[in-house]
Amino acid sequence: MDVSRELAARGHEVTVVTTRHTSSAPERETVDGFDVVRVKPATVVLRTPIAPRIRAVLRGMPMDVVHAHMPPPLSAYYAADVCAARDLPLVVTYHCDVELPSPLGSFIEALYRRSLGASTLERAAEVIVTTRTYAATSRAVWRHNPVVIPNAVDARRFRPDVDGASVRQSLKIPADRPVALLVGRIVPHKGVEHLIEASLHLPEAQFLIAGEGSSLEAMEEFADALGVKDRVRFLGRISQDNLPKVYAACDVFVLPSVSRLEAFGIVALEAMATGKPVVVADIPGVREVIEDGREGLLADPVNPQDLAEKMRRLLEDADLRREMGRRGREKVLADFTIEKVTDEILRVYEGVLQERRPTARS
């Protein structure tokens, strides 16, 4: 949405077509200068919305270029169908490989990758990925020579001068108590259980976990079973207005993801933009957000003890936290701002449109 807002601010006509997850969400609305069209899914299978009516919406829409995102896996396929029928250029951002929570998940993923997924990417005029490591390691995209354009962060919202004192006060956390934070969906691939286990090795720290998801109740029960429920607080969904303050309230941000579904880790960038050091799992994609030892530390995935040791190193050294936080902010401003990422996306649009223009005759 941030890039759509930036494109609209620059005078481009932008329409976002997405699925309608709740009946309370309007089917159509204008948000910050761009239009949003929500399509009700026909059904949802394995948490994946199936909304073939997206084809009909796109068929009747005036447009010069279509930018689809994968996942969700089928929406981009519908967009590719319409682009082929209307002879329009398609740009696809491939965010991550598909993983399905099912005993047949690997089989279904491979079948999709070789059929509908391959068809979608083959019809794209340009494929974008968010990190170099994902471009090199994903079997779905490496032969398409993807362009690397990272996700963007709003460095105007997430800033070091945001005051997090009100969050600490509302949670009754003393000003001198170290706080470790995770922001994200509470789902299996986020590795939340490893952060909870890591809390056993850092009894002096307060852990905050912000977000909702299918594993929330299970993680709350896990924290209770380990006897750390008082030190591991689940904050639930945080409003967009309060989210910068939550980042500002922590001393270190942690992203312990364990799966290729976590291909980038934009929440780590939001923490870095706030001037916070980060500890992130050493897995493809996520590891590319930082340089180990400069803006934060890499931790062994699925290793709560190593995760705790990396957090301890930061929590016990205020000077190191400040220096890494400063470097993280600088890196965001250099490489990950909405303005810079939008410039790169526009260059892709201009490139695919230029290829479609007829060569002028002498």
Explain the overall architecture.
The chain has 362 residues and is an alpha/beta fold. It folds into 2 domains: 2-152 and 338-356, 3-Layer(aba) Sandwich (Rossmann fold); 165-335, Rossmann fold (3-Layer(aba) Sandwich). It has 14 helices and 15 strands. The strands form 4 sheets. Strands 12-11-10-13-14-15 form a 6-stranded parallel beta sheet, with helices on both faces. A 4-stranded parallel beta sheet has the order 6-7-8-9, with helices on both faces. Strands 1-3-2 form a 3-stranded mixed beta sheet. The radius of gyration is 21 Å and the shape is globular. The model has no long low-confidence stretch (mean pLDDT 92).
SSE layout and pairing:
Layout (H helix, E strand, L loop, with lengths): L1 H8 L5 E5 L8 E4 L2 E6 L3 E3 L2 E3 L3 H6 L6 E5 L2 H14 L3 E5 L10 H10 L1 H7 L3 E4 L2 H6 L9 E2 L16 H6 L8 E5 L8 H7 L7 E5 L5 H10 L6 E5 L6 H6 L3 E4 L10 H8 L4 E4 L14 E4 L4 H12 L2 H18 L2 H19 L6
Parallel strand pairs: 1-3, 6-7, 7-8, 8-9, 10-11, 10-13, 11-12, 13-14, 14-15
Antiparallel strand pairs: 2-3, 4-5
Overall CATH class of the largest domain: Alpha Beta
**Structural shape:** globular
CATH architecture of the largest domain: 3-Layer(aba) Sandwich
Beta-strand share of residues: 15-25%
Number of discrete helical segments: 14
Q: What structural class do you assign from the helix and strand content?
A: alpha/beta
What is the number of E strands?
15
Helix content: 25-40%
Mean pLDDT, to the nearest integer, reads 92
CATH homologous superfamily of the largest domain, by name? Answer: Glycogen Phosphorylase B
